[in-house]
Amino acid sequence: MKKGRLFVVSGPSGTGKCTIISRVMERLENVSLSISATTRAPRAGDVDGVDYYFLTEEEFINRADEGRFLEHACVHGYYYGTPLDPVTETVESGRDMILEIDVQGAMKVKEKYNEGVYIFILPPSMKVLRERLTGRGTDAPDVIERRMNNALGEIAYIDRYDYGVVNDDLDSAAEQVLDIIKAEHCRVLDGEADKIISEYGEEN
Ligand code: ADP
Ligand code: 5GP
Fold this sequence. Notes:
Elements: E1 6-10, H1 17-27, E2 31-33, E3 37-38, E4 53-54, H2 57-65, E5 69-75, E6 78-83, H3 84-92, E7 96-100, H4 103-112, E8 117-122, H5 126-136, H6 141-155, E9 163-166, H7 170-184, H8 192-201
Parallel strand pairs: 1-7, 1-8, 2-7, 3-4, 8-9
Antiparallel strand pairs: 3-6, 5-6
The structure holds adenosine-5'-diphosphate and guanosine-5'-monophosphate.
C-alpha cells in the first residue's frame, strides 16, 4: 500500500495557518491533522484532546524523555510537541498527515523525514499580521508583542521550505495549499521509479 504524505505547515502566529488548514481539511478526505501537546494554557474555546493535549510541564518533560514526540520545541515561552505514534500510524495507513508546527520543530522533522513537504504561510505584511493577532482576540497585548517580535525570525527560515503561500485572500490561499497537496501526490519519490517501471514491464 502507498504510504501517506507528511505536510508540515509553519508561519508566524496569527498568519492564518489554522484557518487555512481547516478549509483544506473540509475539502480532502484522506488527511488527518496532528494534535500537538503543549504546556500553554487553553484559550477560550480550546478543547483538550481536540485542539491540543494540554499538559503540565512535568508531564511534557516526561513524555519527551520517553521519546514520545517526533519533535518538540519551546515556542513563545511554552513547550509544544508532536506525538510520534499518530504520525507513524497515519502515514503507514496511507493517510496524509498535516503538522502545524513552528520553524524549529519543522527543521527537526526535516532532519528525520526528508519526504515531508514543507509549506510556509506568510502574512501579506507585518501590519496585517498585527491586525490579525489583535482581531483574533485571544492573546493579551504582551503575548501579541512577543509573537510579533518572533515573526521576523520565523520568516527568516523561508528558504528551508518547499513552498511559500501568502495568506491575503483566504480562499486563494486555501486553494494554493490544496493545489500543493494535489501536485505533491504526483511527485515521483525516491525509490519509486523502479516499482513503476516494473509494473509497466508486464502487459496485464
Ligand atoms: P494562526 O493559526 O496562524 O495563528 P489563525 O488561523 O488563528 O492564525 O488566524 C488569525 C486570525 O486571522 C483569525 O482571527 C482568523 O480568522 C484571521 N484570518 C485568517 N486568515 C485570514 C485572511 N485571509 N483574511 C483575513 N483574516 C484572516
Ligand atoms: P498557538 O499557541 O498559537 O496555538 O501556537 C503557537 C505556535 O506553536 C505556532 O507557531 C504553532 O505552529 C506552534 N506549534 C503548535 N504545535 C506545535 C508542535 O507540536 N511543535 C512545535 N514545534 N510547534 C508547535
